[in-house]
Amino acid sequence: MEALDVLLNRVSVPRLLDPAPDAAQREILFSAAMRAPDHGQLRPFRFLTVEGPARERMGDLLAEALRKSGADATPQALDKARLGPLRAPLVVVVIARLTDHFKVPKQEQLITAGCAAHSVLLAAYALGVGAVWRTGELSYSPIVAKGLGLAADEEVIAFLYLGTPQNPPRVAGKVELVDFVSEWQG
Ligand SMILES: Cc1cc2nc3c(=O)[nH]c(=O)nc-3n(C[C@H](O)[C@H](O)[C@H](O)COP(=O)(O)O)c2cc1C
């Protein structure tokens, strides 16, 4: 697929089936992430792949985090949390690692991690792999961070759900650029 086709047309694919992206496709997905713009070449991100029965363990972790959060953990909400990771054959957890750096503020490191996640989505679209970026409050739970093995300077920024599209990707709507682009003349 042409690069501009991907940049202009990428859309999320929420309904995902088996199979998960294969090894060659994953190599491309994660290699694309390594080309994220990155002040200081810190690579302030890493990925965890979660698939097969590990998705059920991740669902249990999310449900536990919800139960202990103090939020209204209804049986329906707990079920939703538990079943979430089963919505795709592969979940990629994108983790930002934000460290004190003499020149690169944490804000910039976070942006780089976001760009890396976006690159995975773009590469997925180019490969015909369905993908969607999800978070939700539980992404920011300390219980989830601990269960996933995050270090103190790490945080979850994305759960990327990946798989085979159930339906053809939708056509992205046209956006009026005039609302977003203007000239500054000093
Ligand atoms: C940081 C971040 C978190 C998001 N979290 C969610 C989420 O939890 N649930 C959801 O439905 N969409 C979430 N989205 C939005 C979708 O990934 C998607 O971009 C949006 O539905 C628009 O669809 P499109 O990508 O096809 O334009 C998130 C996007 C970003 C960048």
Describe the protein's architecture and organization.
This protein is α+β, with helices and mostly antiparallel strands and 186 residues long. Helix 3 (54-68) runs antiparallel to helix 4. The protein starts with a helix and ends in a 21-residue tail after the last strand. Strands 1, 2, 3, 4 and 5 form a 5-stranded antiparallel beta sheet that branches. The chain contains 6 helices and 5 strands, in the order αβαβααβαβαβ. It has helices spanning 3-9, 23-33, 54-68, 75-83, 106-127, 142-147, and strands at 16-17, 45-51, 90-97, 130-134, 154-165. Helices cover 38% and strands 18% of the residues. The structure holds flavin mononucleotide. The site of flavin mononucleotide has 7 residues, from strand 4.
Mean pLDDT: 97
- Which ranges are low-confidence, i.e. pLDDT below 50, for 5 or more consecutive residues? none
Task: Give the helix level as a range of percent.
Answer: 25-40%
| Number of E-type strands | 5
> How is the main sheet built?
5 strands, antiparallel
How many helices? The count is: 6
Order of helices and strands: HEHEHHEHEHE
Topology:
Layout: H1 3-9, E1 16-17, H2 23-33, E2 45-51, H3 54-68, H4 75-83, E3 90-97, H5 106-127, E4 130-134, H6 142-147, E5 154-165
Antiparallel strand pairs: 1-5, 2-3, 3-5, 4-5
Helix pairs in contact: 1-5, 2-5, 3-4
Flavin mononucleotide (FMN) binds at residues 11-12, 132-136.
